[in-house]
């Protein structure tokens, strides 16, 4: 039987008799079907399109127009949705502006960027796929090779905050893969393509192709290509609901990293966890607003302590109102019977981030299959992964980590096989090929082999 304490800033759920339903409810609210659009977004849709379109309809309209009109549609929607009056030449950030931003940047900030880049390079280099060749029989050589993508596009958000970390976590893995061309798009806002820290980071990483556009129109431009922004082969990076829906819409024309939704974390904690640490981690995730922050524990006292800490720490946050709303809408403190139930609930939710704050976190992670990124121990907050550890912070959300994986160097490699048979090796395998081809009625296939096996 579930019970709730309405006086808390976050929902309390006694799930010792169940619990799946509350996680299912949260998952539905966080899905694209939840229609997470701000009131301002709805007003803007009405103003631009003249009617209250759904987010899917907005994206379909924008993508269709950019596909058919190219740069004029990209500029038109950039003005209508972002209020930026740009021309085709001014869409791209000049090299001088990138250099000026770098020159004006805080030297300590740039040192941090370099250290983080090195962390990412070290990890991504270690996990990069290498070609594999086997020679199972004389005259047979089979290779699985990995080739870097030619050109990729990166979406960098810029609505409520600037995200130089996203540039690092997307561009550096692509560079390690060997991608030759990287285009960065960011909305024409003070937090986006006019943000000095973001531009300085691009310059530090050697990224020269940065564009002042965002939203569904930028995704469509990168997918279909236009005079001002040549098409890419893959689009990666986070964004709001419209960016996510646009990436889904253009998938198939180009590849995408994932269909990402609001950020989410599950914290598994026992009696050894610090309530202050747990509260800080929940607040960090809720700060994305929307962001889902869930504690699962089998210790009632910890829930009481975390509730107190949440209220205390909330008062000190810059974005406390937004965080409070996110906790109320997408947060939960869930009491379960034991660690086994905690692991089962976590697996069913399949969170983007999983933080295990228990005495023996390595034991619990072995019981959990589904998480985008896992963080073990009391002193491994998710923020380490968000900013500096080495793995990318671009991760599958919405339960998709049951089958999807986070962005990595290998996301930018295209895998393909290379087969080579000598004459005698072809003759040896020919009967099997011919037999199956004839069974399937594909006699031309069979002949393409038999004609060689019969040749002198």
Task: Provide an overview of this structure.
By secondary structure, the protein is α/β, with parallel strands linked by helices. The protein has 3 domains: 12-34 and 262-390, Rossmann fold; 88-259, Nitrogenase molybdenum iron protein domain (Rossmann fold), CATH 3.40.50; 422-453, no CATH class. Helices cover 47% and strands 16% of the residues. The chain is built from 19 helices and 14 strands. It has a 6-stranded parallel β-sheet, with helices on both faces. Helix 8 links the parallel strand 4 and strand 5 (181-186). Helix 3 packs across helix 11 (241-250). The chain is globular, with a radius of gyration of 25 Å. It starts with 11 loop residues before the first strand and ends with a helix. The model is unreliable at 1-6 (pLDDT under 50).
Compute the CA-based radius of gyration.
Answer: 25 Å
Number of E-type strands: 14
End-to-end distance = 80 Å
Number of H/I helices? 19
Sum up the overall morphology in one term: globular
Helix proportion range: 40-55%
Write down the domain tally: 3
Major sheet strand order: 1-11-10-9-12-13
Which consecutive residue ranges, at least 5 long each, have pLDDT under 50?
1-6
As a percent range, the share of strand residues is 15-25%
Label the structural class. Answer: alpha/beta
Mean pLDDT: 91
Q: How is the CATH topology of the largest domain named?
A: Rossmann fold
CATH class of the largest domain: Alpha Beta
How does the major sheet shape up?
A: 6 strands, parallel
- CATH-derived architecture of the largest domain: 3-Layer(aba) Sandwich
CATH superfamily of the largest domain: Nitrogenase molybdenum iron protein domain
């Amino acid at each position: 039987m579930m019970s709730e304490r309405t006086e808390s800033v976050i929902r309390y759920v006694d799930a010792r008799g169940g619990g799946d339903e509350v996680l299912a409810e949260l998952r539905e609210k966080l899905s694209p079907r939840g229609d997470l659009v701000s009131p301002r977004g709805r007003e803007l849709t009405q103003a631009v399109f003249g009617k209250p379109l759904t987010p899917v309809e907005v994206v379909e309209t924008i993508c269709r127009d950019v596909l058919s009109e190219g740069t004029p549609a990209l500029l038109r929607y950039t003005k209508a949705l972002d209020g930026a009056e740009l021309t085709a030449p001014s869409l791209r950030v000049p090299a001088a502006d990138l250099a000026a931003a770098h020159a004006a940047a805080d030297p300590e900030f740039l040192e941090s960027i370099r250290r983080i880049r090195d962390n990412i390079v070290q990890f991504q280099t270690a996990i990069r796929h290498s070609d594999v060749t086997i020679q199972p029989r004389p005259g047979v050589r089979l290779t699985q090779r990995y080739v870097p993508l030619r050109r990729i596009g990166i979406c960098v958000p810029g609505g409520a905050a600037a995200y130089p970390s996203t540039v690092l976590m997307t561009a550096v893995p692509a560079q390690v893969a060997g991608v030759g061309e990287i285009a960065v798009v960011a909305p024409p806002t003070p937090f986006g393509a006019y943000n000095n820290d973001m531009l300085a980071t691009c310059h530090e990483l050697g990224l020269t192709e940065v564009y002042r556009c965002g939203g569904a129109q930028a995704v469509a431009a990168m997918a279909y290509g236009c005079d001002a922004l040549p098409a890419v082969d893959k689009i990666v990076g986070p964004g709001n609901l419209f960016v996510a829906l646009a990436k889904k819409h253009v998938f198939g024309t180009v590849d995408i990293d994932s269909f990402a939704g609001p950020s989410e974390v599950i914290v598994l904690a026992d009696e050894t966890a610090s309530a202050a640490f747990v509260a800080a981690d929940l607040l960090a995730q809720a700060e994305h607003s929307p962001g889902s922050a869930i504690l699962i524990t089998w210790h009632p006292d910890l829930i009481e302590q975390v509730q107190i800490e949440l209220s205390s720490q909330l008062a000190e946050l810059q974005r406390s109102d937004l965080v409070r709303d996110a906790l109320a809408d997408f947060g939960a403190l869930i009491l379960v019977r034991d660690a086994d139930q905690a692991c089962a609930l976590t697996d069913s939710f399949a969170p983007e981030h999983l933080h295990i704050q228990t005495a023996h976190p390595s034991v619990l992670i072995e019981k959990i299959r589904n998480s985008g990124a896992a963080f073990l121990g009391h002193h491994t907050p998710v923020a380490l992964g968000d900013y500096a550890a080495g793995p990318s912070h671009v991760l599958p959300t919405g339960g998709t980590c049951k089958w999807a994986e986070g962005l990595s160097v290998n996301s930018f490699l295209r895998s393909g096989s290379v087969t080579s048979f000598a004459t005698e090796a072809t003759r040896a395998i020919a009967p099997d090929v011919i037999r199956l081809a004839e069974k399937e009625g594909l006699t031309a296939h069979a002949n393409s082999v038999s004609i060689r096996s019969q040749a002198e």
